[in-house]
Amino acid sequence: MILSAFNVNLIGFFGARASTVTKATDKKRTLKALAETLELSVTTVSRALGGYSDVAPGTRARVLEAAANADYVPNSAAKMLVTGRSGFVGFMLPLRETAVLDPFLGEYIAGLSSGLSERGRDLFMATVPANQSELTVLQHVVESGRADAIVLTRVAEHDERVEYLIRRGIPFVTHGRTLSEQTDYSWIDTDGYKAFADIFTWLYAMGHRRFGLMSITEPMTFRTHREEGFRDAMQAQGDADTSLVVKHVPRFDTEARVPAVRAMLALENRPTAVLSLTDELALCVLTQAADMGIAVPEQLTVIGFDNIPAADYATPGLTTFDQSIRHAARQMSTMLLDMLDGHTNTTQTLIMPSLVKRGTHAPGPMAAVATVTSPHNQDALSTEPTNYEAASDQSVG
Amino acid sequence: MILSAFNVNLIGFFGARASTVTKATDKKRTLKALAETLELSVTTVSRALGGYSDVAPGTRARVLEAAANADYVPNSAAKMLVTGRSGFVGFMLPLRETAVLDPFLGEYIAGLSSGLSERGRDLFMATVPANQSELTVLQHVVESGRADAIVLTRVAEHDERVEYLIRRGIPFVTHGRTLSEQTDYSWIDTDGYKAFADIFTWLYAMGHRRFGLMSITEPMTFRTHREEGFRDAMQAQGDADTSLVVKHVPRFDTEARVPAVRAMLALENRPTAVLSLTDELALCVLTQAADMGIAVPEQLTVIGFDNIPAADYATPGLTTFDQSIRHAARQMSTMLLDMLDGHTNTTQTLIMPSLVKRGTHAPGPMAAVATVTSPHNQDALSTEPTNYEAASDQSVG
DNA sequence: TATAGTTTCCGAAACGTTTCGGATGGCATC
DNA sequence: GATGCCATCCGAAACGTTTCGGAAACTATA
Lengths: 397, 397
Fold this sequence. Notes:
Chain A has 397 residues and is an alpha/beta fold.
């Protein structure tokens, strides 16, 4: 059982306490107005507020007080216009209007905003209208100057958004990476290759030989990595008696996955362990297995990926890899802010997900043999799930 | 069983297809530059692009073509500055950095953005830094002109953010409403009063007499409405043998709720039906009941609220009210856009949630009596869960 | 041929901020 | 008393757009 890694803090939950909000002065609160009341020039007021050294301490104090009294807030448009920076980080919303909800959207936003708020930046969400492509919207956001930097998710193997941003020289970070030759950009990703290699070793040691893999049809890089990780580990094992059946279904199509899962479970030589690229798929396997009278985990081991909340509430609880999207998103935001603050080096971070062991795994048919011959059991996956703080974020770039 | 109400549409999922992105001309793409190449005035170019009638068709065509060729995108800061509108709708992120994730955040964003994208507006997310109050941030967002309108969630019974926005005359919509005397603003809310009144009637008709209510400590309006709805219905029934035990726990504190739930279930005259203000609470009841050896639904009926994804995966599936946050969020966005487009009338919308009947409800001790004496069974809650399209959104304002 | 009306275009101001390049005055130094 | 050096302040330009109030040229009307 894994517990929620985040504490609850209700202090200040209901917004601010008393504060001076109303200022009867309904004059336009601009620098000019401030300057006039203070009988100073606009320049001086601006520089006083901006913390420049060439303004007398007394004057600065007067300005600061007057600004506070008048509830002065600088007009962001004017500031943007003259500085050329918006202060926004742009987030491309990964959904079409009719599309199913990305289960991670909330996690992304929460993680990003927690990082951004610490350095006074805000998040700007670009929505993609039905008649426009995502690239077009991205272009508009960038060219119009509404965002200084971009966060990209759902990166595909070949992603023209990435290519555009590189060509354009805009700071950006992606969650997931492309498979293109263009590799010199900042990303953060889960080490799906190693995770799936490890899970093979672990399951093999537990006596499993016939494997099923519920994968997705979309050409996402993480799909390739995870499939390869498993295949490579299987080949490295060199046991001719191991087998792997892979099925591909559209990632967000809740209907189409059912027949694929059932076909997998109805194979004459049914796998004893089925891995899934997402928890949604794994939960579907669970449901269908129950429906077909297959006992989990006695007759079938099911492994998911993502550790979505529902994984914990399923019966039995789904054994799955935990990748904290929020953690990754938070890290993305700091990477981006570092880039914006002049540290222009690109950083590429791989995070090793931890296996959360619940109730959907059990020894396979070769269990007796395995415990004797294979020492891998201890190596591949530690019994204690590592938590995020301790997780090894190995830097690659 | 309720099915996902949203279709899957993968067309165009991977971003745009080929498009002209690179323009070798690295000149600044401004109106002035455009005007110079076209040998026209800035005014004319602007008006041609803006669709004004006082520009000759031929000229307009030339301008449009040149603009497209140069990948011209108007600078949004300049536009904001002169028009005084940002084109953004502001969303106050309902979380503190250490706070637990609002389970609806993703739904909110998805719903809002789907509505906004249709009318070319973007979403701006205001994050609240640790050292600032939510009201301060809201003020800054409004005064700096970064948002033309505001979406507020998690509205409390008395909410100074609402008061501020009313006083300031900024268009805004809330999800949930206040209990203050200030009522002339636009909101959308779930009819928790009626829902809880109905559920009492339904459960009573099923033979339940002893009720438990897991409520929250936070002074949110929906808490009051739901509690009152249930109490009023119970009083209206006028049966002296009915009883109600209410417990309040912090809404997002996953630890604190456990002892409260256990205390409720350990009562000497344990309720036969426990209602919860949120699904998280209801799922906790389920878990603890299992732990204490109480059979659900045979010995205990559990009713949730919200219909979060995990509710469907629990065993048995949680019977709960479905309120589509996404649906509400989408409607909020259109309400806001209507206000921004000049239709300044405030609209207040109550949505009746539908009960999703899964496996955690069963007849109570008085079942035999009930089926004979009470006709309410048919009235209170229809057997078929209404879907959103058919749901009656009754306008109140 | 004047006159009025229409079509098409443009100059210039305005939005509110930042910042460059001085300007002013006071003070110490030679 | 001239010189240089600070400390403190300010004028004006610039950012890129929209829009008001014409202006010019052409067409239709008297």
